[in-house]
Specification:
- There is one protein chain.
- The protein is of the alpha/beta class.
- It folds into 2 domains: 81 residues; 121 residues, no CATH class.
- 35% of the residues lie in helices and 21% in strands.
- The chain has 5 helices and 7 strands.
- Helix 1 runs antiparallel to helix 4.
- The chain is rod-shaped.
- The relative contact order is 0.16.
């Protein structure tokens, strides 16, 4: 009954099924692992910015360059405050305001952007408190350079002098004369009565749309694998039913020649034969 499985046609079907199922399972497992990696990155990033779970502060140089592993870690650095800028249109606790950003010049001759705090309302340099003078040692959460349009950073141009949209070396290079670190820190305790700016998880570590796309693709690949199995059994069942009907004589043999007599069940053929002139 099942010898038809050895025919060339079914050999092709079987080979396709044997290749398609492992491929779909592999792709589904890979997408699931991508989702789990994003979940793990999200948990790790959340723990790094949680004050209760943070490791002790480390020198800035030990944490550079900033990546997913070091973003949010406590960094300590010594230097002298220099030029001050404002970062408008930033929200803290659901309220709009601005960051007070001051460059800290280190002994290495480079400047580190330091967010000393946040103030509510429109950006106003007269409201921003002056930075401490002399050599200072600051401790804060290390953050990666911002990209406009990501992590809540607005995309805006034409700002007044002394203001910047994003906190990054690329955005500040034309505003200050110093070489800049490709990173910045936000103080854990707001300076001069300002509210401290909470650290944020690095881009790509949150449960964003991409993470749930991976989960959706996982389901799709496993559904494809199940569909391949379903179609194979459906074709097999139909083939078996056809062979059984053939054995019982329920399938007409289209190759068997007729006896030349008109079929009583086909009146159109009978009428055409009667209409033929006698020779």
């Amino acid at each position: 009954m099942y010898r038809f499985l050895l025919t060339p046609r079914w050999w092709g079907i079987n080979v396709f099924v044997l290749l398609a199922i492992p491929f779909c399972v592999f792709m589904g497992s890979w997408q699931l692992s991508r989702f789990e990696d994003r979940m793990q990155d999200h948990r790790a990033a959340t723990e790094r910015i949680d004050p209760a779970d943070r490791a002790p502060a480390r020198p800035l140089d030990e944490l550079l360059p900033v990546d997913k592993e070091t973003s949010g870690e406590l960094a300590t650095v010594t230097g002298r405050y220099g030029e001050q800028l404002l970062v408008p249109h930033r929200e803290v606790d659901g309220k709009s305001g601005f960051y007070v950003l001051t460059l800290l010049r280190t002994d290495e001759g480079k400047a580190l952007p330091v967010v000393r705090g946040w103030l509510p309302g429109a950006a106003d340099p007269d409201r921003a408190p002056a930075a401490p003078t002399g050599e200072v040692t600051v401790t804060g959460s290390l953050q990666a350079s911002e990209t406009p349009g990501s992590n809540g950073v607005p995309v805006q141009g034409g700002l007044p002098a002394g203001q910047t949209t994003a906190i990054s070396a690329a955005a500040l290079v034309n505003l200050v004369p110093d070489d800049l670190y490709d990173a910045w820190i936000t103080l854990d305790k707001g300076d001069s009565g300002m509210k401290a700016v909470p650290a944020t998880a690095p881009q790509g570590t949150g449960l964003d749309l991409k993470a749930f796309q991976n989960l959706g693709y996982t389901g799709e690949w496993f559904v494809f694998a199940g569909f391949v199995v379903f179609m194979w059994f459906r074709l097999l069942r139909r083939e078996v039913e056809f062979l059984r009907d053939a054995e019982l004589g329920l399938v007409p043999d289209e190759n068997q020649p007729g006896d030349g007599r008109p079929d009583e069940n086909r009146p159109d053929e009978n009428r055409s034969r009667e209409a033929e002139p006698a020779r």
